[in-house]
Amino acid sequence: MRIGVITFPGSLDDVDAARAVRLAGGEPVALWHGDHDLKDVDAVVLPGGFSYGDYLRAGAIAARSPLMQDVVAAAGGGLPVLGICNGFQVLCEAGLLPGTLTRNSHLHFRNRDQLLRVERADTAWTSDYAEGQQILVPVKNGEGRYVAADADLDRLEGENRVVFRYVEGNPNGSSRDIAGVTSENGRVVGLMPHPEHAVEDLTGPSTDGLGFFTSVLKAVVAA
Amino acid sequence: MPRVVVDVVLKPEISDPQGQAVLGALGRLGHDSVRSVRQGKHFVLEVDGTPDEAELKQIAETLLANPVIEDVELHLPKD
Prior knowledge:
Chain A is of the alpha/beta class. Chain A has helices spanning 14-24, 66-76, 86-93, 150-158, 210-222; strands at residues 2-7, 27-32, 43-46, 81-84, 100-102, 110-118, 134-141, 145-147, 162-167, 178-182, 188-191. Chain A is built from 5 helices and 11 strands; from the N terminus they run βαββαβαββββαβββα. In chain A, the strands form 2 sheets. Chain A has a 9-stranded mixed sheet with strand order 2-1-3-4-11-10-9-6-7, sandwiched between helices. In chain A, strands 5-8 form a two-stranded antiparallel sheet. In chain A, helix 1 links the parallel strand 1 and strand 2 (27-32). The longest helix of chain A is centred in the C-terminal third of the chain and has 13 residues, at 210-222. Chain A is globular. Chain B has a single domain (3-75), classed as 2-Layer Sandwich (Mth169, Chain: A). Chain B is built from 2 helices and 3 strands. Chain B has a 3-stranded antiparallel sheet with strand order 2-1-3, covered by helices on one side. Chain B is elongated. At the A-B interface, loops of A face helix 1 of B.
């Protein structure tokens, strides 16, 4: 099972994402933002970091890179896509996910272990969790406040597209404690916290993040 | 060369913690008459030939601003 991990100029967590794929039993495939080549991968991860130095808006320039045109087209055909942190910002800027991420309400970079509640256990990236389950993963961002117009938030909630919410404290002032959302078909998921940093006891606060990467392997087989 | 100015401002309903921080600093400096600060972005584009308003509008609305949270003001050079 080939899971692509895209590297943009300024990506930081691409190596950790590839490692999480490997620990889950998948084959990580390195993808370069400037190519027009998805290398026949079965799913794609957009990792965390500061692509293009967060210039203009976080994720804005990366969202217009050559490979993202291929990702948008493939996502339209059902390719599972996961955006973590800066990857989530890129997916929102690319129009694959609704809303956007902006400066934390308290203006501080926030770095801590964070409890999340799983609101959807039927997406391509969350089937190995149970709805209502709480998971502990690191969160680390300065522009992680999820915002959209109230009417759009109402529509999102009505369509049950919130996948994760922050519990025991909202680290960045996100609207309605939203930590992650999904596309209409449940194949594209984005979240600010970092599941790829919670895949081994030695380096993470838990191994709760591994479920993302085991879930997608099943989603690919089922497709 | 014609210069086109694009101002990008947050929509009124989107909170602006950076503007609020500036407002707080102004209060500490004794500038009590300032009631509100909204921070935005100001782009200056130099373009070849006569500026194409439709193209510049597209540039402003699809790259320079994120329409989810921002509005744009396009200022074309006066004839």
